[in-house]
Amino acid sequence: MGRRRALEGYLYISPFLAGFLVFTAYPLLASLYLSFTNFNIIGEPQWVGLENYVRAFTDDTLFWSSLGRTGRYTLLAVPFGVLFSLGAAMLLNQGFAGTSVFRTFFFLPSITPIIASVLIWIWILQPSVGVMNYLLSLVGIPGPPWVQSTTWALPSLVILSLWSTVGGSRMIVFLAGLQGVPRELYEAAEIDGANAWQRFVNVTVPLISPTIFFNLVISIIGALSVFSVAYIGTQGGPAYATYFYVYHLYASAFQYSLMGYASALAWIFLVVVLVLTVAQFRLSDRWVFYAGGESTDRGRDG
Amino acid sequence: MNSRTSRRALLRGALGLAGTFGIAPLLAACQQAGPAAKPADSKPAETKPVETKPAAPAAQPAATAAPAQAAPAKTSGGGELRLHVRTGPEEDTLKDVLPQFTQQTGIQVKVESFPTTEYFTKLQTLIAGGTVGDVMWGIFRNTPRFANSKVIRPLDDLIKADNFDLSQYYKSAIDSVSYQGAIYAMPFKLHPGPAALYYNVAHARDAGVTMPEKQPASWDELIKIASQLGKESGGRTERFGMSLGLTPDNSTSTLQTLMMYVRSWGGEIYSEDGKKALLQEQPVKDSVRYMADLMFKHKVASTLKEATQQIEDLMITERVALLQASSSTKSIPTKIAGKFEVRNLLMPPGPGGKVGTQTITDHINMSAKTQNPQGSWELIKLLCGKDVGVRLGGGTGGIASGTCGARIDAFTDPALMSQSLHPIFVELVQNAQPLRYPANLREEEIATAVHQTLAPIFLGERQPDDAFFTELNTAVQGVLDRPIA
Questions:
Q1: Segment A231-282, tens digit of pLDDT
Q2: Residue B7: closest C-alpha in chain A
Q3: Same domain flag for B120 and B160
Q4: Are B329 and B443 within one domain?
Q5: Rounded CA separation A272/B24 (Å)
Q6: Which of B3, B15, B317 is opposite residue A217, by nearest beta carbon?
Q7: Which H or E run contains B365?
Q8: Are residues B365 and B351 in the same domain?
Q9: Are residues B138 and B206 in the same domain?
Q10: Contact B23 A225 (CB under 8 A)
Q11: Domain for residue B367, yes or no?
């Protein structure tokens, strides 16, 4: 009976398994193999051993610079993104009239096609004819050159990506987390004389810390994978100012047809992301609190 | 099972899966040749040919123009050919002539078109999968790569068997389709690089400038004209005198523009054998400094800060009076819909007495796997024939529209010569210099390196001092030193 049920189970998941094996597992393994070859797509792969990996670390200046640039982007985009999403979720959690309308407005940018939103933002931020600098000029502020400046290009893309992600799924996850905080805890805190800030710090934050952790991990992975805004908006420029790691990977694969080298870049990237994610899990033991369960705060537990 | 543990385990499991699958597409994408589509076209039609005869003199028209090409011979058996082209005006042009081809040969042609920005990715995917069609559109930089990988077949046997007269084409165009002594394509389109100056007639009238008949006599005169055409209002530039046609994201356009100036100063970007970068040579320094001076010293040209993704935007919005561009801009009247009149001039001759030109061609290749080489050859002859060439040169709007076919009788066709923006290109293509090409075929990487390294100069963030040229040369030499792509 158990065996029969197990077979049934496998039968039910077989469509997924087939798709996973063909469209994910096989390409993953193939890319691992290709990372040890010289492959220009139209010819036959030639085995080169570790040459692609060695080249990335020792003979490709764009490898390190793009990795560093991606790190800087992540350091800007993730804290602001998480904070703004949390702020938006808290506003929507107040129960004001018309909340559902605002929720829709906040969510709209995240479902706007990225191509459309980037192109519109590029026009908005155009230094000489863009709306942004025109509006700034009305209040006497000379606008910066935004995406057409090596200094401002990266922050411009951060602004652009914040617009499309702050009100998206990250905000919805926060909202769900906030709605899961028991009302009586706030009431108890109020009786104890806690003000709004104290309630936020001592009640809200600990209870939604698993949600914050989830959003943080997902946001860091997303920020490290930044590509579309640079590809559509700036083509990695000016002067490589927005030439991120995944853009370098893409250019190597699809513009220069260096598929073997690009595969090596992808596997290096996987390792980097895995290391960062594991580190976050280790650190999470110090600050993530699971309500109703064993505290993960080792210091407090002794 | 402990509920506390399961909640944490669930969270960890979800994050682990999210992490794995977040990266998986990147890894998988490296196995599958299929990138995201890019919306903003980067004008790959502004293309450059392969230099096949390094010591070849400046291109000249063939000694005699052959009579118009005869209709293709009717082949027995009919059958079907698959043709890959870009979507847009080129595809529309071909669709108009293909029924006639089918009628004459009995061969059906199935057109499989892809948007410009994803064309080569899709083509390479078809090649890798062994499902590429019989005949395909391409640009100069693909022919040597495809020939090197034996993806396309040489056409010499078919040309010889057909006694096909190659002198119908500009010699430089035929040189551009040759690789290692064999002809691997026929030239579909030809242009001489951004060596033309388009101007808004109303702006010239408004500024009281009498434009030269043919071209500014010198680079100094160009500065003077651009200065007169510019307009300021309240301390703000209302209209720039000139635009060099640079965009923030089109590296091919930047390389072609740099090439135009460098050749006007008598220089080159690489050595004849395509192995050595020459970007520290004096002509390169002089030409880049001149370009920067137009923007920041004389303040007559728009900088990269004003540029948008399409080179013609500033002219269409009447923010610039003179636009340096190539023959695809011949289609600008359809884009401005009669709002103002546009005419064009040649760029001034450089210190060496010549306008800097380059032979830039689009190609039609034949797949090495075609089962019908004779039928494919007939189709190639049609696509690279006079009729299609004239239609392409008509400039009816859209990306890369306005660039003519590479036959002499197409360029000099009365229908095109009667268009005010076309005639200057006849002289330019007659004298177009062959393009030098990197020996390792990594031209696109070089274009990116040049574009990204030059950007701070055209943004006014850096001076074109000797240290800059050392950096530029090192960037390009770094690409040239890599193995063949």
A1: 999 999 899 999 999 999 999 998 898 999 999 999 999 999 999 999 999 9
A2: A290
A3: yes
A4: yes
A5: 13
A6: B15
A7: strand B360-366
A8: no
A9: no
A10: yes
A11: yes
**Contact by Cβ (8 Å): B322, B226:** yes
- DSSP-derived 3-state class of residue B187: strand
Tell me the three state secondary structure of residue A291.
coil
**pTM strictly above 0.95:** no
Q: What is the pLDDT of residues B263-284, one digit of tens each?
A: 999 999 999 999 999 999 999 9
Residue B93 pLDDT: 86
Which of B21, B30, B295, B369 to substitute to test the interface with A, most A CBs within 10 Å? B30
Domain of B111?
Answer: 62-192+359-431
Indicate the residue of B26, B40, B248 with minimum beta-carbon distance to A269: B26
Q: Angle at CA A225, nearest 5°, toward A220 and A227?
A: 135
Q: What is the mean pLDDT of residues A124-147?
A: 90
Strand partners, B197: B324, B345
In this complex, the residue of B24, B128, B304 whose CB is nearest that of residue A41 is: B128
Query: Regarding predicted confidence, which is higher, A100 or B81?
Result: B81
User: By C-alpha distance, which of A257, A243, A265 is closest to B249?
Assistant: A243
Is it the case that residue A167 has pLDDT exceeding 80?
Answer: yes
Q: Which CATH number do you get for residue B206?
A: 3.40.190.10
How high is the mean pLDDT of chain A? 91
Answer whether residue B11 is part of any domain: no
Q: DSSP string covering B15-77, please?
A: HHHHHHHHHHHHHHHTTS--PPP-SS---TTS--PPP--TT--S----SSPPPPPPPPPPPTT
Q: Look-up: residue for tokens 């230094």?
A: A127
Q: Is the pLDDT of residue B433 over 80?
A: yes
Chain A hits for B145, CB-CB cut-off 8 Å, are 40, 42, 257
Nearest alpha-carbon partner for A118 in A219, A228, A239, A241: A228
- Give me the CATH code for the A61-301 domain, please: 1.10.3720.10
Question: B251: closest CA among B450, B8, B78?
Answer: B450
Q: Are B2 and B8 in contact (CB under 8 A)?
A: no
B200 and B186 assigned to the same domain? no
Locate B188 and state its tokens.
Answer: 């579909």
Assess: ipTM above 0.90: no
B382: in domain: yes
pLDDT in tens, A21-35: 999 999 999 999 999
Q: What is the mean pLDDT of residues B336-355?
A: 91
pLDDT at A294: 52
Same domain, B249 and B216: yes
Q: Is residue B33 in some structural domain?
A: no
